[in-house]
Design a protein that fits this description.
- It is a single chain.
- Helix content is 88%, strand content 0%.
- It is built from 8 helices and no strands.
- The longest helix has 47 residues.
- The chain is globular and about 50 Å long.
- The termini are far apart.
Length: 243
Amino acid sequence: MRDYGMRTTARTAARAGIDEGLRAYMLRVYNYMALGVAWTAIVTLFMSANPQLMATVALGPMKWVLFFGVLGLGWFAPRLIFSGSAATAYLAYGAYATLWGLLISPMIAYYMHMDGGILIFRALLITSITFGATSLAGYVTKKDLSGFAGFFMMASIGLIVAIVVNAIFFQSTMASLITSVLVVLLFSGITAWETQQIKAMYVAGDMAQAARSKAIFGAFMLYGSFITLFIHILNILGIMSND
């Protein structure tokens, strides 16, 4: 009986240690994510304050360079993050946040000048609530969401194609609204799935380098979902306000 009690106490202590380590790991992920969002905000504000530079870098044909740059870095950055070099990992994440800031700066500038940024604030608030709720759901749920990975990938590709086709050929406001609604629904699910995957990557005995790489990669994943949600929620609010 005594041995059983000692084993139970040891397991409880080990479990408490893992829980504490997991909380610290997830906090590190969210902190990195918040830094990425903050840096993107700085980039967008800088570009908005310099309209000529913004016109050169983020409008016209260059916007497609930025768009495909974001997609390309989104594909290759995980390899750079897990390269073993802390500098490379930070640089890849910083470059990703910078490209996003450059890409969305015309949209942010437009809404800032339209209503003094009120719509942007509303979109940011709704995005934060949506992201927080879905990320929390992914963290606490016992249901394995990994089976949705294939669907999330195919649906994301389909929506990217739809957005590009509409932007180039149709330029339909209604199509833009519909795709934005679908993107928000899709990335709400993706956020929950990503959070569960990030949680599953945690290993209590990880070396400092591995733990840092996992935290940056987790932040990279969640950052992309947060920014995507924000853009399309802002688009929805903008279209509705114009109507």
